[in-house]
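Bump. Still looking for histidine kinase structure tokens.
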Amino acid sequence: MHRSIFFKLTVAFVLVAVISTFTIMIVLRATNLDRFNRFVIDQLTSDVQEGLTQYYAANSSWEGVQEYWQTARYSFMNPGGGPPPENREGEVRHPEDRRNFFALIDTNGFVVLAAEPDYPLGMRVSEELIASGTSIQYEGQVIGTMLPLPRDPQLTPEETRFIERSNRAVLEATLIAVAIAVVLAVILSRTMARPLRQLTRAAQNMASGDLEQEVEVRSKDELGELAAAFNQMSLEVSRANKQRRQMTADIAHDLRTPLTVIAGYIESMRDGVLKPTPQRLSLIYNEIERLEALVNDLRLLSQVDAGELPIHPQSISPQTILERAALPFQHRAEQNQIAIQLHAPEGLPDLNLDEARMMQVLSNLIINAFQFTPAGGQITMSAELKDGAVCFSVSDTGQGIPPEELNLVFDRFYRVDRSRQDAGGGSGLGLAIVKALVEAQGGRVAVESVVGEGTTFRIVFPVAPQL
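Sorry for the wait, here they are.
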């Protein structure tokens, strides 16, 4: 049978409240009874001490105290004289058996006032027991000792009714506390269950395809953190879904453009409209190469996603990496009137990297810099040792990237200037590949840019400790 979280929380809170409250009630009842018995004993002891002291003062000894106690046991408890007062049921307030709650021991250690069967008359009592009793003094001298029995005296009907009223009051307070606890448990359970229900509905909506879900964050506790985490997850899933749709559209566009060119030329040649000249065949071949490059880029990213990208690290110096990456672009730089500067101090530690992958990383960054750097500009490639890591950087003096787009440049198929999409501006996968290849080799990549001044990409690889 399905039980809701509201039901489970309510039952749990109620059980805790009931068990705790009734435990407190039981302890209070036992404690109250014990304290009341002690109060009765103390009161009786005080009254009896007074009466026995008066008897000793009148007789100068304990002789005859047993008979006195049997015949006149109520006289000192009833200062007004006469028989003991009666309660509403016709019973005496101090029943006869209450006189036996103690025994009287004289200074020689003999029982002179018996408490049958524990202390019979004439019994010799040890000094240890006498030391545990209550001494009776007259004119500064000890004249005897009262020894209490190990059992409590029987309560009078009036005292019993007092205990019953006290217990009833405790029970009523307990029931009221339980009722309040139940109400609070329902309110608290509903308060805790409400955000969980909202999260459930939002999750079900996401499962149905509505990815843009947001729940209200009502608190800063664990439930609030859960709601905030769900909202962040929903935002990321929605963003990823939009990127997937955009990526699908971009792939279709990037495939359609060269395929259209190829199909147009081949169809024209087939129909005899155009002749298959070397220039036209070269153009078709260039479009095929463009398709091949796109397919290879997509294949590389799929290998990264699957964790199957082959990496073949070897020891290589940062200076060598920069020189080999820059060499193929020297002629293009001269044609575009762009200067390429290299800065790498001597003594940089070697790195354990895949040289081919690093050539691909730096080539993508240089190509990206060429696309956005005008004639007369400069591309600077450098390496330096900082905080136990080698930092590569590729800087240009191009148009820069707006601040709101800096966190998007590594997304697949993202283009800062989408107008270049149809003008040879690349597939939009270059920087995504850079990030994937760097992270696959244990590094990290970041970008800094100022609009109108240029952009700097930084790649950081930690230096392995020397053994």
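Confidence is low (pLDDT under 50) at residues 74-97, 419-423.

Edit: fixed formatting.
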